[in-house]
Each structure stands twice: as C-alpha cells, then as structure tokens.
Write a structure and sequence with these properties.
Radius of gyration of chain B: 24 Å
Largest sheet of chain A: 6 strands, mixed
Largest sheet of chain B: 6 strands, mixed
CATH class of the largest domain in chain A: Alpha Beta
Helix content of chain B: 40-55%
CATH architecture of the largest domain in chain B: 2-Layer Sandwich
CATH topology of the largest domain in chain A: Cytochrome Bc1 Complex, Chain A, domain 1
Order of helices and strands of chain A: EEEHHEEHHHHHHEHEEHHEEHHHHHE
Structural class of chain A: alpha+beta
Strand order of the largest sheet of chain A: 1-2-6-3-5-4
Structural class of chain B: alpha+beta
Radius of gyration of chain A: 23 Å
Shape of chain B: globular
CATH superfamily of the largest domain in chain A: Metalloenzyme, LuxS/M16 peptidase-like
Shape of chain A: globular
Number of strands of chain A: 11
Strand content of chain B: 15-25%
Number of helices of chain B: 16
Largest interface: A-B, 95 and 90 residues
CATH architecture of the largest domain in chain A: 2-Layer Sandwich
Oligomer: heterodimer
CATH class of the largest domain in chain B: Alpha Beta
Number of domains of chain B: 2
CATH topology of the largest domain in chain B: Cytochrome Bc1 Complex, Chain A, domain 1
Chain lengths: ~425, ~450
C-alpha cells in the first residue's frame, strides 16, 4: 500500500490582540529583505445591503482615495516610491488591502494602513470618479467579455436562495449609481473598526520593533462593537435546478454543474475538496480523462470551490462548480450523463488506495502554490493566515490543513459523493452561444 | 469621515538594505543542453522549466504549429501512455505543463523537493520519447479550432492581432497572431513528430532549476536523464525586426460598451544602452499604478479600469505599447489624454522627485522579481533569450540610479513618437468612427482590415 508523502507544511505565526481588539499576526521569512503588510476587514460582498449591490467593492476603491494624512492616491505613490507594490480585493466574506515593500519601509506601510483605518477622507468628486472606474471594471471583466458572468455569477445567482449569497457582488449599474457618501460613512462606521480587522506582517522584520510601531500607530483607534454578521444560511436544496442563458458574445456553448458544499471545517468539506481534486484537478483527473481525452467534448474541465479564491479562504455555503466550454455538435445533456457516470463510479464503489494517495499528494503540493502570492511575495501566506484568523478564529490552524485532508478515508469519499454530488444538490447552467 | 485621533507623525525611513542578487550555477551537458540552477525560496519545492528555442517558420501554413506540437507532447510517451504519464506525475504532486509559442516550446513542473529526481526523469521522458499517437490527431485539431474561435471573441485579441499585423506584416511569423482554420486542418501527427524531431534538440534547450534542492544530486539526475538527447542543427535568428507603421485600424464590434485600445510602436531592444532608461520611462508614463497616464485617464477622468503601458521584447526588437479598455463615449477623449501625456514627457523635464520615486519603484520591483523562484527563473530566461550577461544584474540598480530627467526626455523624444505609432482599436465603429476621424494626431482610419 502506498502512503502520503511527508513533506511539511508549517506556517509559524505569533498572534497578538491590541486593547481595541485589533488582531495582529506576525510571520517570519528572512529569505529576502521584503515584507508584506496586509489588513483584512471582516466585511465582503455578502455583507452589503439590498439596493447596494457592489457596494463593498466600491468602498474598497474608496479606501485608496485619501485619508486624514494622505491625499488621493498618495498611499499608492508612497508605496511605489519606496520600491513597493500593493493591491486590495473584495471577496465574499472579507475585504483586504496589502503592500509588499522593502523591509526598511515596514513602518511606513503600517502607518498608512493605520491612517486609513481611521477613515477615508473623500468628497463627491472621488466617489463619482471611482464609480466610473468600477463601472469600467465591470464592463471589461463582464459586459464586454464573452462568458463574462459564466460561471461565477451565474451559478451563485441560480444555486442560492438567500439574497446575501445569490446577488451580484460586482454590482448592478443602477445600484452603483445610487450609492452616496452617506452610505460610505455608514459602511465605514459599521465595518471598518479595529475589532473587525486582522493585521498581518509577513517577511523579514524584527518582531519587537514591529510590535512597538503597531502599538504606536493602531492602539488608539477606538474599539467599536462588532457588527452583526450577515445571515448567509441556506434552506436545503431539494431538487435539481436547470437554467439556460444566451451569451451574445460567446461563439461556443458552455456548461456548468454547481453542487452545494458541506460546512467549512467539517470532514465532509475536506472530503469534497479531495473529490474536486480527483475529478477536476490536473491531467490525471477523472473528468479530464473522460471528457477531454476520451470523448473530445472540450479542451479542458475546470473545478472550483470558490471563484474568488479557494476552499480555504471563504465561509460556506459555497459551490463546487465543474465547468467547461464545448462544441455545438455536442448536446449538453450527453455531457452531464458522462459526468454522472464518472461520479457514480466513485459513489457506488470504493476508489483505489492509489487514487486517494494521489489526491492527497496533489492537495499538499498545491498548498504551496497558494503561498506563492502570484507577483506579491509573502502575500499568499498572509492570505491563508488572515483567512483562518477571521473565519476560524485562529491563524495557526492554517498549518493544520494537510491533517484535515489526511484523515479522509476511502469510505468518506464514497459517502460524500453519494450525499453531495447528486442531481438534487446541484444547479446546471447551460450557456447558449449567441455570437454571430 | 475621519476620526480625530492621534496618529504619530509619518515615520522616516531608515536606510534601504543593500541588495545584491545572487547568481546561478551554469553548466552544460556534452550534447549542448544548457543548465542553470539556483537555490531560493522557503517552501520545500523544486521548480523545473525546460525551454527549447526554435526559429519560427515564415510559412503562414505553419502558424500555431508550435501549439499543436506542444499539445501533442502531452499525449504520452513510448514508455507511458498519456493517462499513465499523468498519473505518474500526479503521484509526485505535480503535472507537466507544455506550451508552445512562436519562439519556443516550454515544459514546466513544480514538485516537492523529495521528488526532484523522479520529476526530471518524467520531463526527460516527455521530451525525448514523445509518441504522437495518430488516434489523437483529429481531437487535438478540434482543440485548436476551439481555441481559435474563443480567441476571436476577445476584443483584446482582435486589437493585438491588428497591431502585430501592422508592425510585422503578414509575411512575418510575429505578424500573424491567429492562424486560418484551413491551415489548422492540415496538421497531422506526422507533421508534429517531424517538427519535434527537427527542433526539440539538446543544443537548443536550456533547463532551469530553482527552489530547495541538493546541487550535487541535481547535477547527477540531469546528466542521467538528459545525456542521451541528441543534437540537431543550430539556428540563428534571421527574422527582420518590427518596423514602425503610422496607421489607424478600427475593428467594428457593434454594441461594444468599451473601445479596446492598442497604441504603440517599435523601440530599441533588451541589451541596448537605451533599454533600462526606457523601462524607467515606461513605468513613469503608463507602466505603474501611479503613472501619469493611469492617474489621468483612470484616477482623474474615470474613463477606464485597467490602463497600462508595457514593453515587450521578441527576438531582436522591442515594442512600447499603451493599452486600455475605455467607455465607448469617451474613446476620442481618452486617446487625446494619452497623446497629451506622451507629448508632455517629450517636451518637459520630469521633476527630480518624480524621477526618484519611479527609480525606487523600479529597484523595488527588481528586488521582488529576484525574491521568488518562479520570477527569478523568468528573469534568467529573459536574459538568455536576449543574450544578456548575468553581470548586467549586478549593474542594474546603479544603471537605474544614473538616469537623469534629461535622459528621459531624450528617450521619449527618440523612441515614443506619436507620428510613428500604430493604433489598433476595437469598438462600436458606428459610434466612434467620426470622432476618431477628427483626431489630428491619428493616421487615416482603415476599417475592419
């Protein structure tokens, strides 16, 4: 019998909490003289109110538009002028801001984040400007792009009944046009307090000096009461949902199957993660073998448990979505039939030990890919640590991800496939190619 | 919206830590294969990239042949069929990515360090013993046809296609971004196998290894895996460089909400004395978030979300290019602002402060690039493709520091000349054509060429 390889996955972290509730995470990596400062606020697309779709994302843009000590875009200019880079992003459950700078500029990055945690300083002009920028972001990524909503916005809209989960977090143009400065003030007051945030410093720095600066810059920001978390619970799904749509910009049809996931942290959740690996990740995945290589229906099959990240940095409910672009000559129902056959092969009889070990090896190896930070050194590790601190209350749990997969047995995979990868737990999106 | 709280004064920075990029160890096998390796990174992984350079064919019928061959190389070897090969790679926590573009075929894989030897064996197997099963030819052709259709749907691809055509012409391999359907239908297993036999030779290959590994073990494993790879004809690049073309091409995309702009021209090439200065100029003009064009058309006017200028380098030339997807009704205004920023940098000296800030940005970007295994590997690949010596790396920071405001103005004047630029634009012609015609700086518009 083969066994899972033993290569380690360890993300040492020191945790502190300031008197105002701000949680601080410190992670050392001295391999290069750079440091990543990130701030995660526990507010995301799922927190925004009806009539204000896209507001969490619009507000993220506003956080770059100036604060008490910094003019509009000064933060960006400062980071660049010390040789750094930065970004921010809005996810389902949190909004994050980060800078990667040479180590000597750590204090500057901390100071700037402390300044904007005290509040953006913006006028109607900046709001108007960023409304235009965000609308252009939606045009380039969604409206003027074939498959722009497929499958990420389509599946959540059709598969969820709770508005907090199903609405378009990028925002409807009408809602974006309705957003006001008063909304921004209210949103900031409610969500952008130290108690609702996590600050992470990762890279090459001295711990005592960093904590001294963090205390000096952040500790007098008043503690506020934690905002109420949005209710994101879903009623159980009882029947298959099938939705067809025409994409006027697409020249080939596409298909997505979205299965509701079990709860984050549960054994079933990690079993489903392994099933996703077995079915869709890599050249050895079962659906690639069948649909790409054997049947030639498509060039590739994608699998995702979180279109805005991965299975470790979002709250559930999520969707395991299998998607592909295919040809006109193939009936989507025949593709679904083949997918069901493959899933049936897992749920009706035990998979081989080899396949399980391979899936665990892929997962463990893939975890390192998450750390690479795609162009932002030390950001990947910060993201995992902040996500676990926000979503599970303890950043150090990020190091336990491999063990959570390791305990999964063949019988678990069979049981979870039988329970979750079934038609009555899924939403099917059939995209019809509408391009001339 | 700000709270009245005491934030201490903005901290003054201490001195930047000196950064000297460490080099790589290089060696070659008797068959001519080059090997570069350097240890870097905190994860117990090893990163492998094998690059096989080839002279792109000028025969239009072979456009995308490199892609076809790369796809085919994933269809198994004479030792292991495709499924068994994929399973073997997955069992060591990785998979082999094979891609082909018009100058090279690339194999890449990342695996836990403990599987370095197995991974090298499998990469070598894929390169040295590809099977090219005839049974898969038609399916792989269908994949390319699908990819062609999906590419044509993208306005950015349409704009890039027009831009390349103008700079290189249709008789040049770089001038043809997309092939014709008919030519793809001519590809066969024999053609793919013959291409591989001719071009995938040891003396055109360079293997890059990074991550955490034992150098001695790597050297042994490389020797063992690749020593039987045969040599072939070497090639020298004889393709003509891009030439400027003062032209405006408009591609109609009815009802498009945005116009997709590709606007640029050939400049110098990597290794030329002007190149690093042009990189600084590019970052200042449109190549960074705090650049002039971005601050103007995004942060001031809100015309667009992701404008950026860039420099690309192929075999013996370089191109400067500004791209942006702008709201349809401000298309001419956006072009006017980009033009203004180009003219301003040609006519007026930048301030020392602005220059100093962008220099620091360039130096910091260099440090970041050298701080991750993948990006530093990419850096070395770029150097090798353009025959740059590694000693350039230790001089880079000083060279950036030496740039003066007058240097930038002169570079802009010499290289970023709007009267030599090609504009390739994809948008709703009915809505934007008339206002484009009124822009004095543009060449006469050719529609849907």
């Amino acid at each position: 019998m083969t066994s899972t390889p033993s290569f380690a996955f360890d993300l040492p972290v020191t945790r502190h909490t300031l008197s105002n509730g701000l949680r601080v995470l410190l992670h050392h990596d001295k391999s290069s003289p750079i440091v990543c400062v990130s701030v995660y606020y526990h507010v995301g697309m799922r927190s925004e109110p009806k009539g204000r779709t896209g507001f969490a994302h619009l507000f993220e843009h506003l956080m770059f538009q100036g604060s008490a000590q910094m003019e509009k875009m000064e933060l960006v200019g400062q980071v660049q002028s010390v040789g750094g880079t930065l970004n921010g992003s809005t996810r389902f459950d949190f909004t994050n801001y980060w800078e990667v700078v040479p180590s000597h500029a750590l204090d500057l990055a901390l100071w700037m984040e402390a300044d904007r945690m005290r509040g953006p300083d913006i006028s109607e002009t900046e709001l108007e400007n960023q409304r235009d920028v965000v609308k252009n972001e939606i045009r380039v990524n969604v409206l003027n792009r074939p498959y722009g909503t497929f499958p990420w916005l389509d599946v959540q809209e059709q598969a969820f009944d709770n508005w907090q989960n199903s609405h378009n977090g990028y925002g409807d143009m009408v809602d974006l046009d309705s957003a006001t400065l008063a909304d921004a003030q209210d949103f900031f007051d409610r969500y952008y307090s130290p108690k609702n945030a996590v600050l992470c410093v990762a890279g090459d720095f001295e711990e005592a000096a960093a904590m001294k600066s963090i205390n000096s810059f952040f500790s007098d920001i008043p503690a506020m009461n934690l905002p109420e978390r949005p209710d994101i619970a879903e009623e159980p799904q009882v029947a298959e949902r099938v939705h067809s749509k025409i994409d006027p910009l697409a020249s080939r049809p596409a298909l997505a199957l979205a299965y509701r996931t079990p709860d984050r942290g549960s054994t079933d959740y990690y079993a489903l993660g392994l099933l996703n690996g077995i079915l869709t990740v890599g050249d050895d995945s079962l659906l690639r073998k069948e649909l790409v290589r054997k049947k030639g229906f498509t060039s590739s099959v994608s699998g995702s448990m979180n279109f805005l990240g991965h299975m470790h940095n979002a709250e559930t409910p999520l969707l395991l979505t299998i998607s592909l672009i295919h040809d006109d000559k193939v009936d989507p129902d025949s593709i679904i039939m083949e997918i069901d056959k493959i899933i049936k092969s897992i749920s009706s009889s035990p998979i081989s030990e080899d396949l399980l070990v391979r899936a665990k090896t892929k997962v463990r190896s893939g975890l390192y890919g998450l750390l690479s930070g795609s162009g932002y050194p030390r950001f990947g590790v910060s993201d995992l640590l902040c996500s676990f601190e926000l979503l599970e209350g303890d950043a150090s749990l990020a190091s336990s991800i491999p063990e959570r997969f390791d305990v999964i047995e063949i019988a678990d995979l069979r049981r979870v496939a039988e329970k979750y990868l079934i038609p009555s737990n899924r939403t099917v999106i059939k995209l019809v190619a509408g391009a001339k | 919206m700000t709270n009245d709280m005491n934030l201490p004064l903005k901290p003054t920075l201490g001195p930047i830590r000196p950064f000297t990029p460490t080099g790589r160890k290089r060696f070659s096998l008797d068959n001519g294969m080059q090997v570069s390796m350097f240890e870097l990174g905190s994860a117990p992984l090893v990163y492998l990239r094998l690059v096989i350079q080839a002279q792109p064919s000028t025969d239009a019928r072979l456009s995308w042949i490199e892609k076809y061959v790369a796809e085919y190389m994933g269809e198994g070897t004479t030792d292991l069929d495709a499924d068994l090969f994929a399973e073997a790679f997955a069992a060591i926590g990785g998979q082999l990515h094979i891609s082909g573009d018009d100058t090279s075929t690339n194999f890449s894989a990342t695996v836990p360090s403990e599987f370095m030897t197995e991974a090298l064996n499998l990469v070598a197997m894929a390169v040295l013993k590809p099977e090219f099963p005839v049974s898969e030819a038609e399916r792989l052709q269908s994949n390319l046809l699908r990819e062609l259709d999906l590419s044509k749907d993208q306005p950015q691809v349409n704009a890039a296609e027009g831009f390349r055509k103008a700079l290189y012409g249709l008789n040049h391999p770089f001038g043809r971004l997309l092939p014709s359907r008919d030519n793809l239908l001519e590809f066969t297993a024999d053609i793919a196998a013959s291409y591989s036999k001719t071009h995938h030779v040891a003396n055109s290959a360079h293997l890059y290894i990074s991550g955490q590994f034992d150098q001695r073990l790597v050297e042994e494993a490389v020797e063992k895996s690749f020593r039987n790879w045969s040599q072939g004809d070497s090639f020298s690049n004889t393709l003509p460089a891009a030439s400027p073309s003062y032209a405006t091409f408009l591609f109609d995309r009815p009802e498009a909400e945005q116009s997709t702009i590709y606007w640029g021209l050939p400049i110098s090439h990597p290794g030329a004395t002007s190149w690093i200065g042009l990189e600084v100029l590019n970052a200042l003009l449109g190549g960074s978030f705090h650049s002039r064009i971005t601050l103007n058309i995004r942060e001031d006017k809100g015309y667009t979300y992701s404008p950026r200028s860039m420099m690309t380098a192929r075999s013996r030339d370089g191109i400067w290019l500004q791209v942006a997807d702008v709201t349809t009704d401000v298309t001419a205004l956006a072009l006017g602002e980009i033009f203004k920023e180009i003219m301003s940098i040609r006519e007026t000296l930048v301030t020392r402060d602005e220059l100093e800030a962008i220099k620091q940005y360039m130096i910091g970007s260099f440090v970041r690039e050298m701080s991750e295994p993948g990006s530093r590997m990419g850096h070395f690949m770029f150097s090798d493709r353009h025959n740059l010596s590694d000693s350039e790396d230790s001089l880079y920071i000083d060279r950036v520091q030496a740039i003066t405001p007058e240097d930038l103005r002169m570079l802009a004047e010499e290289f970023i000349d709007p009267t030599r630029m090609t504009l390739s634009i994809v948008g709703d012609a009915g809505k934007i054509k008339d206002e484009l015609k009124e822009l004095q700086m543009l060449a006469p518009i050719e529609i849907d060429v």
